[in-house]
Amino acid sequence: MLKMTPLLWVLPILLLCGCGSAGKAKDGPGWISDPYKVYSRTAYIAAVGYAPVRNQAEKNALASLSAIFGQSVSSESSSSYSYSQALEAGKSGWAENADIAQAVKTSVEMDTLIGAEIKDVWNDGTTFYAVAAMERAKAGLIYSELIQTNLRTIDNLTRFSAAEPGSFEDYSRYRKAAQIADANTVLAKVMKLISPGSMAGENLKSGDEYRIEAAEIAKNIPIAVTVENDRQARIQSAFSQALTAGGFRVGGNDARYTLNVLLLLEEISFSGNPNKFIRYTVDADLVDTFTGMVLFPWNINAREGHANAAEAENRALRAAENEIKKSYISALGNSLGNSGGSKK
Questions:
Q1: What is the pLDDT of residue 3?
Q2: CATH number for 318
Q3: Structural domain contains residue 97
Q4: What is the SS3 assignment for 116?
């Protein structure tokens, strides 16, 4: 499976070297001073980059080209959003189209916009110059097909979710649909710059709309929480609070889903340090008891110290509680939006 990496169009800054003006190059091709002298503005979107080595010059040109779209799509950039993961989630459709699959593959390898190409490179003896361009007509077809394929994937995800109402499968499908909808929002914004008269993006549902539906599903998913070695039930309480805050129901007789947690506390020492240290390890498996699948394995560990062991243990438990409340639900949501679990 192709590993996807974040694309440059969601980066807020340009590379420092060669991403602005192409500088001065004597006797060079006309595109160095203005790419639109060679690549018609009506047919292309183009930009130039330069650097002492060819590879960096090409990267700088692609970064400059991506920057043209930056202001339009910057609002979609956040730590929780991965355009590439969204495409990966819906790739079964576009992977069947060789042209689109190649365009996406190239964009990943070059860390740039889908449809962007290095059109020419010139060297004046000390500096390499590169021009990157997107052919409006060709890119428009690719983006339009990607949006439509993603819409079909979203429809399949949400339509078939009715087969398992109130299940994590149902919840996961809507989370995946949300990611793909996020991707379509970005695709549509880029499409409008490629083809200003395009209707791309009209009436598209946002990713947040699918997340709201996923949250409604979560309310009907009871999860039983069991923790080994949790003498004071602090870890069980932390997971219960996290799940409740995430919109899930905790407890219930014969719940289909169980969160099986193992807590380990280990005293450790360091030569020359009089303090006592306790290392905590929390292993938590969210299990579907109907299928035996581990839907989401999660692990945290760290150490805390104090002058006496009892307080060191108390600090370790408090640190574990805080980490569970802070990180578990977001990690669960991200995982279920990207994978289907593994056999226990």
A1: 41
A2: 3.30.160.150
A3: no
A4: strand
Q: Look at residue 96 and tell me if it is in a domain.
A: no
Taking the model in full, what pTM does it have? 0.72
Output DSSP code: residue 196: T
- Does any domain span residue 115? no
Residue type, 209: E
Count of domains forming the chain = 1
Which 3-state string (H, E, C) describes 293-330?
EEEEEEEEEEEEEECCHHHHHHHHHHHHHHHHHHHHHH
Structure tokens at 171: 């919840």
Low-confidence ranges of the chain (pLDDT < 70): 1-26, 71-97, 108-111, 160-165, 200-201, 337-344
Among the listed residues 220, 237, 211, 221, the one whose alpha carbon sits nearest the alpha carbon of residue 333: 211
Residue whose entry in the numeric block shows the structure tokens 């130039």: 48
Residue 175 has what pLDDT? 87
DSSP state of 165: T
255 lies in some domain = yes
Q: What is the distance between the alpha carbons of residues 112 and 141, in angstroms, rounded to a whole number?
A: 18
Distance CA 99, CA 117 (A): 14
pLDDT value for 71 = 53
* Identity of the amino acid at 181: A
Q: What is the Cα–Cα distance from 6 to 18, expressed in whole angstroms?
A: 21
In the chain, which residue ranges form alpha helices assigned H by DSSP?
54-73, 83-89, 91-94, 98-110, 136-160, 168-194, 207-218, 234-245, 309-336
**Cβ-proximal residues to 303 (8 Å cutoff; 6+ apart), any chain:** 268, 277, 278, 279, 280, 316
3 state SS for 31-78: HHCCHHHCCCCCCEEEEEEEECCHHHHHHHHHHHHHHHHHHHHHHHCC
Residues written for the chain: 344
CA–CA separation, 3 vs 336, rounded Å? 18
Boundaries of domain holding 280: 222-343
Please, are residues 257 and 223 in contact by the beta-carbon 8 Å criterion?
yes
> What are the tokens at 287?
């299990």
**How far apart are the C-alpha atoms of 68 and 61, rounded to whole Å?**
11
- Quote the Cα angle for 342-180-220, to 5°: 60
Number of CB atoms found within 10 A of residue 233's CB: 11
